[in-house]
Amino acid sequence: MKDKMARQKSGELKPGNDLEEFVGEIEPVTVGREALSAQIIQQAKSGLDEFGIELIDVQLRRIAYEASVEAKVYERMISERQRIAQHIRSVGQGEKAKIEGKISKDLKEIESEAYRRVEIAKGTADAKAIRIYAQAMNADPALYKFLRTLEAYKRPSPRGAPSFFPPTANSFAFCAENRAPVS
Question: Which pLDDT band, with edges at 50, 70 and 90, does 145 fall under?
Fold first, then answer.
């Protein structure tokens, strides 16, 4: 210790350029401030006894690292925070996927129930229409004949040929039967 102080006074050894200074790999922190203070007191007491100095307490307020060590400490802190942030993001993405899956499932259930109800309503309406249509056809066979003729008029001629009906065709029978007298 004396040799070290003498070398510092003579200028051979500048503070901060100590050979014992921590450089390179960062050791993992295994003790807290109190334990570190106790270690410093223990090591410093032995060197100060020679000078008649009694060391009572050491309090660490701030630890200043060498620039290269400080950069590594900050890199380590940043990588740890990034790892934590990535973990939180992945958990969030998982929750998002769960929520979206539940929404998709619920939406499909709602759509299928709505489709089922629509089809039931259509079937009920079709059945009612068929029943009314059948009652009308049974009530008046001439109405059935007339409707079938109208359906025939709707169908196009073969190969797009124009349709010509002679005046004697059965198609005009309805017109002749129901024609009102001309005054």
Answer: confident
